[in-house]
Amino acid sequence: MSEANRKLGKVAVLMGGKSAEREISLISGKAVLAALQSKGVDAHAFDPAVLPIWEIRKEGFDRAFIALHGRFGEDGTVQGALETLGVPYTGSGVMASALSMDKWRTKLVWLAAGVPTPKYRILTPQTDLAGVIAELGLPLIVKPAREGSSIGVTKVRTPADMAAAFALAHQLDPIVIAEEFVAGQELTAAVLGEQALPLVRIEAPEEGYDYNNKYFTDEVRYHCPAGIRPDVAEAIQQSALRAFQVLGCKGWGRADVILRADGSYAFLEMNTAPGMTSHSLVPMAARATGMSFEDLCVDILARASFG
Predict the structure, then answer these.
(1) 242 belongs to the catalytic site
(2) 213: annotated active-site residue
(3) Is 254 a catalytic residue?
(4) Residue 256 designated active-site
(5) Fold identical between 99-116+183-292 and 120-180?
(6) C-alpha pair distances (Å), 247 with each of 88, 107, 192, 295
(7) pLDDT at 282 (0 to 100)
(8) Ranges of the chain whose pLDDT falls below 70
């Protein structure tokens, strides 16, 4: 074990949890755990759905790598618990995590800061859905404000689909967003520390980059470098840093972006604890800079702090 890795101490890799993204979190966490152990880090699995979070302090852990996704892991709650316990952790703090998990309030901050994001409306049971369609056009996207991994997201193509799309999202979250559909190339912009990593371009099947295609098929093609104009790529990377910083994020993260045919672009959301599976995008971007998955995990862990 290197001296630097020894100084990282006993590490809890938080995985699983109780969100709708538990399955993906377990895959991410196991990959991170294996990577850290391969580099000589004294890392151990810790599932907050199995053991109470305060057991981290009882078990003598010195820091935590958060590989939890979704609610109770990416929304500031576990970050607050770790702050109270005095255990430094990876990624963004309480405020930035909570803000980034809420796609509505993320949009409010981005719009105020000049970060481009698609037009949207908040839906309630009383909303005139026909009026929203008239304003945003079809197709449009309906999604819960505080879920990830495309859970509860519907691409609405006809007015008849709108009510069911709202009902699905509303089951998961009382805050539901209708968002204009932005046609273009799907990109992700990862941030590591103060650096914007190379963009990844995603080519998904006709049904789109949904939950199944994100994690469980090999139908999606990834391109890194993204193969777009260098000046456009640079502009998106700089905007990604801005999008990251105005939310108060730190450590690492990943923004999802759509690049239109005319060269303009729109940011969809910020992920503060991105996936670390075999299909994941931050490792792909890091690899393009010559950084291995194992070194990326150690780098993220070494940045652990209090929010």
Answers:
(1) no
(2) no
(3) yes
(4) yes
(5) no
(6) 20, 10, 15, 26
(7) 97
(8) 1, 149, 206-217
Note the pTM of the prediction, 2 decimals.
0.92
Considering 29, 269, 280, 307, which one is annotated as catalytic? 269
Catalytic residue, candidates 215, 253, 280, 307:
215
Q: Is 275 marked active-site?
A: yes
Letter string b/e over residues 105-140, b meaning 16 or more CB atoms within 10 A of that residue's CB: bbbebbeeeebebbebbebeeeeebeebbeebeeeb
Q: Any residues with CB less than 8 A from the CB of 294 and at least 6 apart, and which?
A: 35, 36, 38, 39
Please name the amino acid found at residue 19.
S
Q: Which CATH architecture has domain 120-180?
A: 2-Layer Sandwich (3.30)
Side chain identity, residue 252: W
Helix (H, G, I), strand (E, B) or coil at 158: coil
Q: Mark whether 55 is an active-site residue.
A: no
pLDDT of residue 283: 97
Residues 203-220: tens digit of each pLDDT: 987 655 555 555 556 788
Radius of gyration of the chain (CA): 19
Q: What CATH architecture does domain 3-90 belong to?
A: 3-Layer(aba) Sandwich (3.40)
DSSP state, residue 194: T
The active-site residue, picked from 254, 265, 280, 307, is: 254
Domain residue spans of the chain: 3-90, 99-116+183-292, 120-180
Amino acid at 269: E
**Considering 5, 17, 19, 21, which one is annotated as catalytic?**
21
- 5 counts as catalytic: no
Please say if 149 is a catalytic residue.
yes
Catalytic residue among 19, 100, 271, 280: 271
Residue of 251, 275, 280, 307 marked catalytic: 275
Q: Does domain 99-116+183-292 have CATH number 3.30.470.20?
A: yes
